[in-house]
Amino acid sequence: GENVEQHPSTLSVQEGDSAVIKCTYSDSASNYFPWYKQELGKRPQLIIDIRSNVGEKKDQRIAVTLNKTAKHFSLHITETQPEDSAVYFCAASRSTSGTYKYIFGTGTRLKVLA
Amino acid sequence: DAGITQSPRYKITETGRQVTLMCHQTWSHSYMFWYRQDLGHGLRLIYYSAAADITDKGEVPDGYVVSRSKTENFPLTLESATRSQTSVYFCASSERQESYEQYFGPGTRLTVT
Q1: Rounded Cα gap, residues A54 and B72, in angstroms
Q2: Facing A43 at nearest CB: one of B44, B96, B105
Q3: Mean pLDDT for each consecutive 10-residue tract of chain B (113 residues)?
Q4: Are B72 and B28 in contact (CB under 8 A)?
Q5: pLDDT confidence of residue B16
Q6: A1 vs B: CB within 8 A
Q7: What are phi and psi of A82, to 5 degrees?
Q8: What is the mean pLDDT of each run of 10 residues along chain A (114 residues)?
Q9: Which residue in B41, B44, B100 is closest to A32 by CB distance?
Q10: Residue A87: closest CA among chain B residues belongs to which residue?
Q11: Local structure of B30: helix, strand or coil
Q12: How far, rounded to the nearest angstrom, does the alpha carbon of residue B104 sit from its chain's CA centroid?
């Protein structure tokens, strides 16, 4: 079945440094790739997404890149801050009956050290 | 965020008992989803619904039953709870086509003893 691999499972960076999280998907028909952030004890919330017709998307300190040929996409966070500490989930999806069912990666716990 | 709620927030039940987790959204979103979150597995889709009276299986549907008689409610029932169903359950909703974003509820932490 469809699968999304996410690496690393944990990541520690110094405040101000950059963080990169990588995901690989198996379903070549996937065409929508969201990233969710989940703070401790909270619900997942969308932080950025990208569609398959775009190679890169930026929103202030976060960016996502997509390589359809290699079937992988990455989240880049620059100038990390303590409030960036959370678990980040990638997902891959394609339209099924008018909606997008997500296949999530297993998550990356990011710790930003002050 | 207040638009999608889950109840109860915490539940302890015994093996073999039936338990129902409730999900309610006020946005009139067409699509609703149930996920379970377990360490090392991320979020896995249990069931989803495209509209009232339309439901379909996700990745891990065994042992679960859903219904959707009204657009705003999407209850998840564990017919005979097992310890392996101890998890955090998230409900989510999204609007058809306008946005692919799924909005998550606050979650229900279920412990099966």
Answers
A1: 34
A2: B105
A3: 89 98 94 93 93 92 96 97 98 78 95 98
A4: yes
A5: 98
A6: yes
A7: -55, -35
A8: 92 98 95 95 95 92 96 97 97 80 94 95
A9: B100
A10: B42
A11: coil
A12: 10
